[in-house]
Amino acid sequence: MTVKTATNSLNSHTTSAIDSLQVAVSEQIAEMNALSSIDILALAEFALKELQAEMKTPSRSAQSVAMRIAKEVERICQKSDRIQVSGEVSAWQITLAEHRLQKTLEFYRLGSKQGRVELHSRLASMIYRHVASFRSNLNFQARYNMIEDFLQGFYIESLRAFRREHQLDVTYQPRTQLELSEYMAFTEHYAKRQIGLPGRNRQRLIVLRAQGFAKGQPPETAIDIEMAVESGKGEEAEMYSRSPILQQVREQMVSDTVDPADAVLRDRVVLELIAYLESQNQPECVDYLTLKLQDLSASEIDRVLGLSARQRDYLQQRFKYHVEKFARTQNWKLVHEWLGADVDQKLGMNSDKWETFCAQLSPEQQQLLAMKGNQESDKAIATAIKCTPKQVQKRWAQLLDLASQTRNGCTQA
Fold first, then answer.
1. What is the pLDDT of residues 25-47, one digit of tens each?
2. Which letter does DSSP use for residue 341 in this model?
3. pLDDT interval class at 243 (50, 70, 90)
4. d(CA 186, CA 401)
5. Are 266 and 99 spatial neighbours (Cβ–Cβ below 8 Å)?
6. Average pLDDT, stretch 218-233?
7. Strand runs (DSSP E) across 107-163, as ranges?
8. How many helices (H) and strands (E) does the chain have?
9. DSSP state of 3
10. Where does residue 290 rank: exposed (0-12), middle (13-18), buried (19+ CB within 10 A)?
């Protein structure tokens, strides 16, 4: 009995010490991030200048739009574990702000009419195969009518979400071209939000909505899925949490939420990959990627692109070649950052594999790895290891390939 009591006491003290250490570490990280982050007013000023530089005529709404972008960026940075432990909060703030600005200004440049057409087209392509089953044998016009009916309801839902997330009045409506562009950018982002499902799968919010619509679910079941995933905050969330529908949805959701920084990185990777494929004169690969992102099956892609099975196999091989080249050359850092496999993250390996990997490297490769980890330019690395910048890129691609083999347990004896 004495030994058991002493053991329990020791465990209690150990747990208490660990808890205290975790609190101290969390406080230290928060303090470091506070020092390295940008003040929200300064971030809003940055966003305002970027907006004004692009706008043809001054807009009275620019200041409020800039402040909403700054607040949204601040919310994402506080919510994201990836950002909080990165030690680069200010860099993330600028990246996220630029991403939001780019999306808003994209619709602004299109104009209110063409912007609506573009948004409608993008959303329709996301839900075309989900709003009604292909087995339902609907003709094009019938399916088109279902898409129109669904999207009208989705626009209303996204406006409600926009008001709620930005704490706007329930009667708020976008009035200026800039406000409309902001709302359209929000709607596209809202549609693409990844929602956790049983079995650790994820699906876009708009696809889940469309699937519910196809099953004839009543409108009241289209509740905020994100509120179902997250713990409630405030009176509104408390009222939601009492809803039996919400409780049913929450039971179907996995407990862990999607890190908001991941969605931004994914968008950047996709945009850079499309730009790369276009620069390589590969329009067929761009079309293939676009359809894959819409979650179309192989047979559906064949039908849309008019491919035979043999042609599709050839296109897949060409696409794979270019994606691998993209991921191992100038864009390696962006891709590896998205995958959580940057140099400072041991290229995605655990400690044992990292040691095995490093032991295989020649002195020159170790120097290359160290300089890449310090984010030095290819020109500086070329000078240090006495080769050309082009050779640096080639040797780095070979090193990343070796890292991939080690990470996946494919190293040769």
1. 445 444 444 445 688 899 999 99
2. -
3. very low
4. 38
5. no
6. 44
7. none
8. 21, 2
9. H
10. middle
